[in-house]
Amino acid sequence: MDRGLRQLVQRLDDWQTANAPLVAAQRREARNIACLRTVFDALSRADFEPAFAHLTHDTSYSLYAAGQISFQLAGDGLEAVREGMRTNFAAVEFERIDIDTLVAQDDAVMIVARQRGRWRESGVAFDERIILEYLFRDAQVARYRGWILPFAA
To answer: For the domain that residue 84 is a member of, what is the CATH number?
Structure first.
């Protein structure tokens, strides 16, 4: 089980609890946060199928990195995104993910966080800021963009 992703799931739960009146008033946003929670919970257990069930058929992703990373940086369509998720999440082990900011409005969720972990193949540690943007359609992830900004060594 990936400790960092489990921690991210807990932070999403904490956000929903701390923002209970907002969550009650903004049902669409609450559904989208719940979708992300389910996706990250499945990924934390390397159980990909439940995560894939929350993607639209025409989903896509793009990752932008300020440095070289061993990730598939883009995918268009469900099969490409499935392959990218399997490849990318198998390459890293997250040790800690701290959410600085979470904003949910309409069908968009934006997360700014710090993530720390190790590349599985090399054992090299990483410590970086991430900006994650999720766009939803019918409470499923339709588009994901992520910016990965390493802290200076």
So the answer is: 3.10.450.50
